[in-house]
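Dear V.,

Thank you for sending over the compound details. I've combined the ligand you provided, pyridoxal-5'-phosphate, with the protein sequence from our construct and run the structure prediction for the complex. I'm sharing the raw inputs here so there's no ambiguity about protonation or stereochemistry in the SMILES, which I know was a concern on your side last time.
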Amino acid sequence: MYNYNFNEIIDRTGSNCLKKDKLHERFGRSDIIPMWVADMDFKTPDFILNAISERCKHAILGYSFAGDEYYAAITHWLAQRHHLDVQSAMTGFLPGIVPGLALSVGCFSKPSDKVIVQPPVYPPFVFVPQHNNRRLVCNPLMLKNGRFEMNITQFREFCSDARTTMFLLCNPHNPGGRCWTETELAKIAEICAENNVMVVSDEIHSDLVLPGHKHTAFASVSETARQNSITLMAPSKTFNIPGLGSSFYFSHNAELKKRFASFLKKSELAEGNIFAFVATQAAFENGEEWRRQLLVYIDANIRFVDNYLKQHIPQIKAIVPEASFLIWLDCREMRLSQHDLVSFFINKARLALNDGLSFGEGGEGFMRMNVGCSRVILQKALEQLKEAVHQIQLSQFLSTESN
Ligand SMILES: Cc1ncc(COP(=O)(O)O)c(C=O)c1O
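Below is the predicted structure of the protein with pyridoxal-5'-phosphate bound, written out as structure tokens.
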């Protein structure tokens, strides 16, 4: 068995890497460790790079289409990994999940319709409906004992408003990493169907479920859920290929699938690109062992952060995720304003994290840390953080003493 090396450090500088090369533009300095944009610093696996190189050996990169093998790789993966019976005819290419959210909003809702989202949530869930003149309805998640829960009672109330026509579900959730359970999803499915609220389920993190947890595909919970939803998925997070724009959707409802396919066609976005097809197929045909080893490494990184914080920086608490490589850090005990908290991470800890407030309501006092990196870098980041926290504690102590 091949052992993938997640300890390898690859310098991404100068590769137009958003996470690294935009540090100065986004954070005002570049001498900080990038732990924001949600891609990983691990090498994209060779079985994908080789498939792309192999395709490049053909002399012409002309107009292309998604072949039967591409769809077979997707449907086989969905059956094996998620116990989903999806036929090729139920699926289609998407240039990305965020474009998929925008296209779903455009296709299945009307201007000034109400769209439910559950903050704190990945920012496009908030700005996509807003940019498309939909009215945003926030049903904030509730943080209970370090774990997010949905407010089902309020969700039901929001759905009962006839102007509410869509719910954007993030499953597993970003940030916070909750894998919603079958019970929670079945409840949501029932409420939505009763009220004619369509569900768009973003399941981009579904293949990154950590040991001991389980992803439940929304479309797996009931026939009601299947008939009232469209699911957006991608190999991009799991196999570290988000720069390729290689996503897809599926719906068991033939009418929804048809409407969405024709909306994509009208938008001239249905065609896709050679490398997205090649990479997706290679990922799903060869990727299970890489995925397994990756999750062991990420899980150890998460436990490393959790233990380190408990031991050295107890003022900051990790909301331990059930999926993916993003940790939601509860920094409320530091008692800093959000502005000062963000500045503390950049200028004192010299770390580039995502500002919790960018995830909407419930994000104040939080920061999001990407741990899709080598353990050595992670350790360095935590040491910097520990040092910075000690420094501010010292200066707070000295200023109290002098008063
Ligand atoms: C929940 C979620 N959806 C979508 C995306 C991005 O998808 P894409 O790059 O395919 O637009 C991310 C990236 O972090 C995400 O966390």
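A first observation: The chain has two domains: 18-45+288-402, 47-286.

Warm regards,
I. M.
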